[in-house]
């Protein structure tokens, strides 16, 4: 049972509804209520195994929760997403929002004390950042970190906003500052002088600020910043919107500003929320280097960090003058946050927290796994070669699946593969074809086929690698271009049966698996079945049993670093190994849904199975994955 202390605020979505959805994804019987509903729904508290209270002060209603759960020995977890449990910090010098919102510091301190009382009496606490958890552990040592994140609908809305933005441009460069309450006047001060200089030196630049739509009052008051005086004509005011519409506002930015007072304990505990929400719409962020932002943003790779006015000015000037750079950083940030702040990671983290609160062996094992994962948490690099877009048709809808067809000199087979995608029963459906610098007639055949079949697909894209990069990298280009949550790679000499995409999608939607793979019918020089084995991670130790024709969650592809080029083949085997090393698993679909062509000119026959090559491939795979014990029979 989730109990919300502030159901009318955006935080309720981040800390209650998204955790509630995570619990449901884990197969738990979950529900939620407001703190005011305790009296009428008290029996539901008594029936719960775990009660998670978010942002509530000590009160008769909270006392009722503790009374009921103590009687049933249920666990009570207290979730807090701000440093609002230390009364001594309730001063204007630390929390400028007390001044800007006209609060009484003494009353705020008393409220903070009541929040602290809930934390002290809870069985465990949950926080959004390590900094917040560090502070909380003084009052409750059993404190866990469950970061803020996005959900599937936010991702879908964000990616539609990106596609719309690509068609619309007015030549202006927008520096956006998205804040929902007037509590960040002091935070903006660190960037204000630099923003003023940029606006004066670069007339096409605009500062985007928000106002209360009901009263048209500014949420950030620019009058407090002398550097912005006389720049009213370069300030673009927007009405504040609901959380569900926020991606469309972020998508209007060219640069996202996320300033905070570095060293201020209240600000240091703030989450990475502004970074990942901008990243989902591929907008580059400049942020103050608080602890959470330093961990989230790789400076110069997925965004920029700025600690001083001069650093803010330099970062803004660089990104304003270099659109290619800001686009590159923003795109890397997008791929970086898919797993880090996505719903799958949230469900995994919540599961671990609940296991650890149980204690005993199960809790200890979950704790050990968390430690091992955090120790090896280096983010893998995606190997995506330079490619150009040859053709695109976009109907502007949202599909769930993209089929990616990499092609290299397969003019004689590629139409069969593409026709099999055309005949899929799943609607809508996206298709991306990646020509890996073919030297035969493949490019002309692909272009002709694509132009004749645009009406079948929600989004159809033809890419061409600038130079031959190999199968793994060509697949990465396709995955990178995909705008759907799931992607199915189809080699150009194979075929899908009509229900392949639909049934693999159904299998993934019914589970938390990272990929779903069907049984395959071999044809050509052999006619046996493959892919019939149920999923087992250890089964991969002696060889691959999962073909590349599998429906894969894009977040999983990004999390493991995509496909890696392995000379002579087995890129898909390596990919599955990295998936299971990340704790991801697959779902076998026990139906024959695709067809695998065996022929004398395939990569398997001409490269992988050549004896000296196969020895080299096995050695490479064993070096990359020490747990493999692949036999070689010559």
Name of the CATH homologous superfamily of the largest domain: Spore Coat Polysaccharide Biosynthesis Protein SpsA, Chain A
Oligomer: single chain
CATH level-3 fold name of the largest domain = Spore Coat Polysaccharide Biosynthesis Protein SpsA, Chain A
Count of all domains: 3
| CATH level-two architecture of the largest domain | Alpha-Beta Complex
Helix content: 40-55%
Largest sheet properties: 10 strands, mixed
Structural notes for this entry:
With 634 residues, the protein is α/β, with parallel strands linked by helices. It has three domains: 144 residues, Rossmann fold (3-Layer(aba) Sandwich), CATH 3.40.50; 189 residues, Glycogen Phosphorylase B (Rossmann fold, 3-Layer(aba) Sandwich), CATH 3.40.50.2000; 238 residues, Spore Coat Polysaccharide Biosynthesis Protein SpsA, Chain A (Alpha-Beta Complex). Helix content is 41%, strand content 18%. The strands form three sheets. Strands 13, 14, 15, 16, 17, 18, 19, 20, 21 and 22 form a ten-stranded mixed β-sheet that branches. A six-stranded parallel β-sheet has the order 2-1-3-4-5-6. The protein starts with a strand and ends in a 10-residue tail after the last helix.
């Amino acid at each position: 049972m989730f109990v919300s202390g502030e159901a009318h605020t955006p935080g309720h979505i981040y800390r209650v509804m998204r955790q509630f959805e995570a619990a449901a994804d884990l197969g738990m019987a979950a529900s939620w209520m407001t703190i005011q509903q305790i009296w009428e729904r008290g029996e539901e508290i008594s029936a719960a195994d775990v009660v998670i209270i978010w942002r509530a002060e000590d009160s008769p209603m909270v006392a009722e929760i503790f009374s009921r759960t103590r009687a049933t020995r249920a666990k009570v977890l207290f979730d807090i997403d701000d440093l609002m449990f230390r009364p001594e910090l309730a001063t204007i010098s630390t929390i400028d929002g007390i001044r800007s919102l006209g609060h009484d510091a003494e009353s705020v301190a008393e409220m903070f004390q009541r929040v602290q009382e809930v934390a002290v009496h809870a069985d465990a606490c949950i926080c959004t950042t390590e900094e917040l958890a560090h502070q909380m552990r003084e009052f409750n040592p059993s404190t866990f970190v469950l970061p803020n994140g996005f959900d599937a609908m936010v991702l879908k809305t964000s990616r539609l906003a990106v596609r719309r933005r690509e068609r619309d441009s007015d030549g202006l460069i927008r520096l956006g500052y998205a804040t929902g309450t007037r509590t960040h006047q002091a935070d903006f001060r660190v960037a204000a002088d630099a923003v003023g200089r940029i606006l004066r030196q670069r007339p096409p630049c605009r500062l985007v600020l928000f106002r209360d739509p009901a009263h048209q009052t500014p949420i950030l008051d620019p009058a407090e910043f002398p550097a912005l005086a006389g720049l009213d004509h370069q300030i673009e005011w927007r009405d504040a919107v609901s959380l569900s519409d926020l991606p469309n506002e972020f998508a209007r930015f060219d640069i996202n500003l996320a300033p905070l007072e570095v060293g201020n304990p209240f600000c240091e505990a703030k989450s990475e929320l502004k970074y990942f929400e901008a990243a989902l719409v591929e907008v580059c962020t400049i942020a103050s280097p608080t602890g959470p932002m330093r961990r989230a943003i790789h400076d110069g790779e997925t965004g920029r960090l700025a600690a001083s006015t001069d650093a803010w000015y330099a970062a803004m000037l660089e990104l304003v003058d270099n659109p290619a750079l800001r686009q590159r950083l923003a795109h890397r940030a997008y791929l970086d946050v898919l797993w880090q702040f996505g719903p799958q990671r949230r469900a995994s983290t919540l599961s671990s927290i609940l296991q650890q609160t149980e204690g005993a062996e199960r809790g200890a094992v979950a704790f050990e796994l968390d430690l091992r994962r955090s120790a090896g948490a280096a983010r893998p690099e995606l190997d995506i070669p330079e490619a150009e877009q040859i053709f695109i048709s976009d109907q502007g809808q949202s599909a769930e699946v993209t089929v990616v067809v990499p092609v290299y000199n397969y003019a004689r087979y590629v139409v069969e593969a593409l026709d099999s995608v055309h005949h899929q029963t799943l609607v809508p459906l996206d298709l991306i074809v990646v020509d890996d610098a073919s030297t035969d007639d493949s490019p002309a055949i692909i272009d002709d086929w694509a132009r004749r079949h645009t009406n079948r697909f929600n989004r159809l894209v033809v890419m061409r690698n600038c130079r031959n990069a190999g199968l793994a990298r060509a697949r990465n280009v396709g995955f990178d271009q995909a705008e759907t949550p799931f992607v199915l790679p189809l080699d150009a000499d194979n075929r899908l049966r009509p229900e392949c995409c639909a049934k693999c999608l159904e299998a993934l939607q019914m589970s938390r698996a990272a990929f779903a793979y069907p049984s395959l019918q071999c044809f050509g020089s052999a006619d046996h079945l493959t892919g019939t084995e149920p999923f087992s991670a250890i089964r991969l130790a002696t060889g691959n049993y999962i073909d590349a024709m599998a429906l894969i969650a894009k977040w999983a592809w990004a999390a493991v670093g995509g496909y890696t080029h392995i000379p002579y083949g087995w890129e898909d085997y390596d990919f599955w190994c990295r998936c299971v090393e990340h704790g991801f698993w697959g779902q076998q679909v026990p139906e024959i849904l695709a067809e695998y062509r065996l022929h004398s000119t395939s990569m398997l026959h001409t490269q992988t199975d050549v004896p000296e090559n196969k020895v080299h491939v096995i050695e490479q795979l064993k070096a990359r994955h020490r747990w493999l014990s692949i036999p070689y029979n010559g």
